[in-house]
């Protein structure tokens, strides 16, 4: 700690910070551009100049850049000093020389850090009277729009893109007043974190193109605190809505999870919410051969209830992309015995294994913030950038944190970003990755092993044995693998905080057991280690905790007529198992009720389809891969602007459907009630009630506003429907209003913040006003509750070690490779994601391709147990021979781990996703 | 028309130049061709290396350099001995690099070129001594890209020295390993700033780095790195050979600084060129040696050491040309090569030209330099065209102040501000004559883009 004096006031600050950080953490306003809480200081923009005095007697002082000056004990500065103010105004004036002043047509306007800083410094008169320098813009892909004329050359974009996120295709070009930030030529930005440029850029150079195409000012958007549904990481997001559509997704600061950054799937994958073909009314047909009719809610419920009441046995199929509350309500409807998770048995076994390891292996699951502080990492069987991108970004920071350790040894402060990187160069904390192919984290690894799944497991088992010889030894281990295992074990044991990361992406239980053994071994050796296990979907972890039978069981019950009706919750079964099995079950069933917000292949099999709310129209709770239960809140009422819409939360539909079946007139249910019921029914979920404040939460007696106080057009936006403005929708489920009325301030700490705004701070930089210190935690505590605490008692080592992988003659083992764009069911229905996704190709090892006589682009037919696919070949030098890699997200014709045959396709042939 | 290649011209005959009084130039040949290895060794070349590497400690070398107070000849005037004493060394510290700053790009400066083209072995000898003192594992000569002849000479000298065992493993049987590579720059003035030079050497953008940490702590590739100017390094063999006291006494009563300085004069004088003279020699003597003003014109003003130094007046001619004396006059000694301006020449045009250079050569890292300098240029252009507005000169005053020391990331913009500020002080009337337009009136022909 240190005491500093700012304009005569004493402040106790963290002495290891720089002055800018310290002042902002105290709530003082100092304008800045190039500094960023996650990226440290470089002293480029000169905007944060303050006057520093040597001591009490020094009245002269001198200008210093607060971002580059330590907040050492006894430091005396003035922010208000006239010379400092004048200089800061000069800086803005220079930045404005070439700025186009196109705020009225600029997407950044209204949440622009440059606007905020310009107002803060008081620059309001243009004195430069000469011509401005102009640039040409580039095409950067479907996500990011480029308008270089707005650039103020703060260098944040390249510092984030290259230094923080490891990207290589965005750079600074040119010199003097003609600096250009872009690619060497037009083209899609390669980094899966490019969307963060829209928030990192303090002005409108890099903006969200998906937003531009349906643009609304931030102050006209309606927000709610939400949780990203596109993978299991549980990043906090602020979706913004206008006219019944989600217009953009902004990062919502969470001090332990995503902090400042999201991945592009999460940010740009929301388009499925806005699809025109979404079911918006109940759809009914009494027989599959009949046409659909749309029904009113009561009629639909009556039809559905009649059919379900008369059914012999009703099966419920839940979903790992639906909330705990919805899954719970389905389970209540059909009973525990008839509830399936809707997850295939292979994946479910992996999920159960992961849950068991998290409870019993003895190591805790780190939060993403904690991941960044682990100093040796072993990653078994996950390509993190593809399967849990935000975790991958955290792993990169963990590797790079070695530089901070080295810098500390030379008394270089952590925040001095350029100096830290100069000293550290390419020295990283040891990261080891074993995966069948190259990954986007390979550049920071100490060693990378491209292995078949069984060999990845064997490597893991061998590492565990090297750490603790109580762990079973691996038979017939070759010397290279033994050496590698020994090296990895040594590095993990030498670390303060080793971390093991694995997951279910390859669908290989042996890998998880191996990871578990490493974790158990580390736990027994009393390391402050961690174990992080990657699940696939937003609520995979939560649904595992509710439990249920696998999808195959449900299909079998239906196909064998042990049950004659099924209720399917937000789950396209055709994405999970081969179509034949699904068809057999659903066509046999007398009654198929589907609740979904997407018109899926499963929906097409329904007798009754009930239009469910997507995350944007629903409240609910998800459990992330770190076991954190987090509430997401409804962003908007879908029927306000589309009165014909009958979209409701699945848990609401299921609640009334259940009442109808029992012929009980039921009152409406609220989120709090259903959450409470769910918590009561599942002791492991007991704490989810505390994941967020309930509907009675008030600040100063007020509910919380979903809309900024400058929200405009409320009285006009429905005028085309009805000139009299209805009462704003009421929200019985949450403490939020569908209105600008309500609390939106920063004075009272609150953990659920719909949108970041503070007086004078309209940009995402306003988050600094909500945190206990810059880059710290929300002052009211970060949202969510952790549900899984590891028991200290270490359990027994797994002993089922697979034999080493051996290729077969004429057969290849199939691995399914995670895919960020295109590998997730819902975001794959968003146009920008489709545009960004690489075409599906089959990865074939170089040797194998040569043997087969195929090259890039040639087509191969891949035949497995349940059918075949035809795909173009992509030679993959790193892939082990005998293995072929199929991208995730294709129709599940082929199963991970099965042995397939390959045949050169003679023209035509089925396309990717087609099945024969 | 035949083009005669320009050579830096030393205007002192062989008779005048002696080992004891002209340590930098006494070996140079009358015909201006390169002093090769054989001749260099014949003239006591590499004797200091043999002596020092075998018989003196690194600390001893640094102590002697400190006592001699060899001040950085690149223009900053920082003691080379002190710089060397701050280089991190020790069992846990990796051996770093010794970098020669040969990116001579200061407007009006051509002194290092003479040494590089005609006597590269002296530089190599100095670098070996510096490398030894700083425990460097390797040396780089960062050479201005346009210095093609110097590149040839330096490369030849490196090859000769390596072949003769003066570079490589176990130099002169001392056990000290050191080698040097020549790196030609790609033509940026900012590479003369030592940390930008290091970034460029590493293959990065030539942006300066923040200090601290200084290169001596974390320089090229994060290792301790010493960057010295060519002339500075060329002083080391003499100092080692003759001792600190001799060096101090070279300047006699002329200056508190020791040693000689390669001075030069360019501009409208009868005989522009270079002279090695005791540091502290007054400009008046230099002007005299340069044959006085050409065409009988009168001296109007002069820059003491390159484009980034402040203008001085004829009345300052008798002041000693050393770091502190020129500093007291509000300018800087800089490189010590005078740019002479006569009564016919426009200071406004000269300043505009200089500011154009500095604006163009800004690396673009920090705001005042990147965006302030082009504005300065445009204002000067407007004044030069007689399109100035009443507030333009106050704006220039403000810009000159805002671009000053402590406000920008490195010394580039303060270097650009110095001639501007001094010109506004001494020749304000020239600027005022350009103010003809009323404020706020749009011009028919706005300043074309890209001219700045």
Q: Please tell me the CATH architecture of the largest domain in chain B by its name.
A: 3-Layer(aba) Sandwich
Which CATH top level class of the domain at 347-541 in chain A fits? Alpha Beta
What is the multimeric organization of the chains shown?
heterodimer
Helix content of chain B: 25-40%
Tell me what the CATH architecture of the domain at 347-541 in chain A is: 3-Layer(aba) Sandwich
The portion of residues assigned to helices of chain A is 25-40%
Could you give the order of strands across the largest sheet of chain A? 15-14-25-24-23-16-17
CATH topology heading of the largest domain in chain B: Rossmann fold
Question: What value does the Rg of chain A take, in angstroms?
Answer: 28 Å
Q: Report the structural category of chain B.
A: alpha/beta
The count of strands of chain B amounts to: 8
Low-confidence stretches of chain A: 909-916
Low-confidence stretches of chain B: 448-452
The largest contact between protein chains, plus residue counts on each side, is: A-B, 44 and 43 residues
Q: For this structure, what is the CATH class of the largest domain in chain B? A: Alpha Beta
Number of helices of chain B: 17
Total number of β-strand segments of chain A? 36
Main beta sheet strand tally, sense and closure of chain B: 4 strands, parallel
Count of DSSP helices of chain A? 25
SSE order of chain B: HHHHEHHEHEHEHHEEHEHEHHHHH
Domain NADH-ubiquinone oxidoreductase 51kDa subunit iron-sulphur binding (chain B): 348-393
Pfam family, one (chain B): SLBB
EC number (chain B): 7.1.1.-
Protein name (chain B): NADH-quinone oxidoreductase subunit F
